[in-house]
């Protein structure tokens, strides 16, 4: 592992923007931070964009309501997991335009960045301001998946973001919804020819992400 870390630090990838997608609890944030530190570049959270848009109460061209679904729906984690998975997809679709311009700006200003978040969809790579930069090798991406639902639930509980006051049945519903979302993302990513990696083992995740994108595009 030490040798892999040194290689990552000394061999700068060709891309200028690396997008890491996947559901909550698969290690995206930790991996993005590790890659950013090793390569000496910035890393960003899609949640920052989402929170900024929500706090600003912006009105967007399409499906603005989806952006606020999880914040404004009472007892949201008591809804069927399938409905919640659909809402995770819808929220990410709303976010795509905002992520697209951030990616394009970092590429065009030659400011390399790692961007991670569950709001990154495989369809983002086909959007007008991203697709050409993917073809030129300036944008790369990977989607992380946790095949085991129980492991994902344990990861979400361990992370502890907003879970302390929830009942166990709600945590199970959240984990199921996000597991479904992860499976959907992986299927979509593979159909688009994008790399998909199992999150475990986390100890080698950052190195595996960089390696997966050296020659993929």
Write the layout of secondary structure elements.
Layout: H1 2-10, E1 17-21, H2 28-39, E2 42-45, H3 46-56, H4 64-67, H5 69-72, H6 81-108, E3 113-116, H7 128-135, E4 139-145, H8 149-159, H9 168-191, E5 196-198, H10 205-214
Parallel strand pairs: 1-3, 1-4, 2-3, 4-5
**What class do helices, strands and sheet pairing give?**
alpha/beta
What's the average pLDDT? Answer: 89
Radius of gyration: 17 Å
Strand order of the largest sheet: 2-3-1-4-5
Task: State the helix count.
Answer: 10
CATH architecture: 3-Layer(aba) Sandwich
Overall shape: it is globular
CATH topology annotation: Rossmann fold
Please give the largest β-sheet.
5 strands, parallel
Total strand count, please? 5
Strand content: 5-15%
What level of helicity do the residues show?
Answer: 55-70%
CATH superfamily: P-loop containing nucleotide triphosphate hydrolases
> Low-confidence parts, pLDDT < 50 over ≥5 residues?
1-5
Q: What is the name of the CATH class? A: Alpha Beta
First and last CA, distance: 25 Å
Order of helices and strands: HEHEHHHHEHEHHEH
In total, the number of domains comes to 1
Quaternary structure annotation: single chain
Describe this structure in words.
This protein has 217 residues and is an alpha/beta fold. The chain has one domain: Rossmann fold, CATH 3.40.50. It is built from ten helices and five strands; from the N terminus they run αβαβααααβαβααβα. The protein has a five-stranded parallel sheet, with helices on both faces. The longest helix has 28 residues. It starts with a helix and ends with a helix.
């Amino acid at each position: 592992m030490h040798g892999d870390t040194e290689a990552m630090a000394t061999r700068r990838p060709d891309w200028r923007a690396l997008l890491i997608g996947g559901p909550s609890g698969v290690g995206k944030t930790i991996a993005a931070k590790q890659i950013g530190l090793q390569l000496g570049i910035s890393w960003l959270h899609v949640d920052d964009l989402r929170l900024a848009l929500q706090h600003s109460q912006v009105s967007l061209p399409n499906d603005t309501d989806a952006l606020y679904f999880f914040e404004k729906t009472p007892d949201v984690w008591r809804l069927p997991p399938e409905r919640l998975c659909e809402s995770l997809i819808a929220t990410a679709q709303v976010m795509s335009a905002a992520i697209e311009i951030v990616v394009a700006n970092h590429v065009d200003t030659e400011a390399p960045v790692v961007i991670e978040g569950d709001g990154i969809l495989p369809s983002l790579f086909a959007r007008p301001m991203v697709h050409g930069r993917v073809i030129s090798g300036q944008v790369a991406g990977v989607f992380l998946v946790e095949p085991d639902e129980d492991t994902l639930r344990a990861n979400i509980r361990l992370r502890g973001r907003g879970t302390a006051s929830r009942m166990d049945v709600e945590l199970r519903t959240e984990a199921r919804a996000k597991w479904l979302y992860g499976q959907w993302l992986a299927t979509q990513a593979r159909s688009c020819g994008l790399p998909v990696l199992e999150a475990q083992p986390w100890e080698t995740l950052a190195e595996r992400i960089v390696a997966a994108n050296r020659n993929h595009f």
